[in-house]
Amino acid sequence: MDSRKFLSDSERESLETYLVSRLDSDLRNCALFLTALHSGARANELLSLTWNEIDLVSGEIFLATLKGGRPRPIVVPKLVREALSRLKTMSPEKPFKISYSRLAELWTLYRPAEKPFRSLRHSFAMRAYDRTKNIKFVQRALGHRSIQNTMVYLDYDYNANEFKKLMRVR
Prior knowledge:
By secondary structure, the chain is mainly alpha-helical.
């Protein structure tokens, strides 16, 4: 997989630090990108989210996929829950009431590198796999019906990291 499809660890950390620092001044946008970063949600899944699909106590977000995959619950960290909780008081109808084109515009302002919005999903997948080494877990977290779809997200990890480990390349 092309490294332009996901955020490096330093890019991901830089983005998260930047978003956290701007929560007070730009809550909706920062909450949107933090949610994307920590849920692996597709853009259309995020933009269609309602408050009924978010449990702010448990941190569970129910992502109803629009691409034929399995609906799935994702538990987000406390940081995301707190941002969403604050956002709910400001936007009681729907968390992210913007269009896809507006999301794309905003992403160009926030992204830590010239990478597409879906790089957040790829980063989530690679991080989930790196932490669990469980491809079935990643498949469910991404809402894929086919494991083949999930493998696309992990090609880079297998091609670079696993090859080095297996071949003991230094």
